[in-house]
Amino acid sequence: QVLLAESGGGLVQAGGSLRLSCATSGTTSRLYAMGWFRQAPGKEREFVAGINWNNARTYYGDFMKGRFTISGDNAENTVYLQMNSLKPEDTAVYYCAADAPPVAGKYDSWGRGTQVTVSS
C-alpha cells in the first residue's frame, strides 16, 4: 500500500509563496505518476499539477497561468509543488496523489491533505 504524506501548507498573504512536499512510504515500487489536487470548501476537487515519471512530462490545471511548478525525485517517489503569486482563491486543502502499480493511468493513492490559506 502506498502511503502519501503532504507537508508545507499554512497561512500566507496574497502574493506570497509556499512550497508543498509529498513523501511516499509503504512501497519500493516505481510509481507511474504523482500529482497534486485541491479542494476548496463547497467545491469539487480539481487537478492542480502532475508529473509523469515515465517521460518526465508535467501537466497543469488551466488556472495555473504559470504560477505553480511541480517537480520531484523519481527515485525517491517524492513530489513538490512550488506556488507563487498566491491568491485568496487558491485557499484549499491540497492533496498529493499517486498513480501506482500494478495498473497505470489513474491516481489511486491519496494523502490526507495539507491546508493552504491565502489571506487578502
Order of helices and strands: EEEEEEEEEEE
Largest β sheet strand count, sense and barrel closure: 7 strands, mixed
Bin the helical content.
under 10%
Low-confidence stretches: none
How big a fraction of the residues is strand? over 45%
Number of strands: 11
Q: Give the N-terminus to C-terminus distance in angstroms.
A: 40 Å
Gyration radius, in Å? 14 Å
What is the overall shape?
globular
Treating each run of at least 4 consecutive H or I residues as one helix, how many helices?
0
Coarse structural class? mainly beta
Overall pLDDT metric: 93
What does this structure look like?
The chain is mostly beta strands and 120 residues long. The protein contains no helices and 11 strands. The chain has strands at residues 3-7, 10-13, 18-25, 33-39, 46-52, 58-60, 68-73, 78-83, 92-99, 109-110, 114-119. The strands form 2 sheets. Strands 2, 4, 5, 6, 9, 10 and 11 form a 7-stranded mixed sheet that branches. Strands 1-3-8-7 form a 4-stranded antiparallel sheet, with no helix packed on it. Strand 7 (68-73) and strand 8 (78-83) form a beta hairpin. The model has no long low-confidence stretch (mean pLDDT 93).
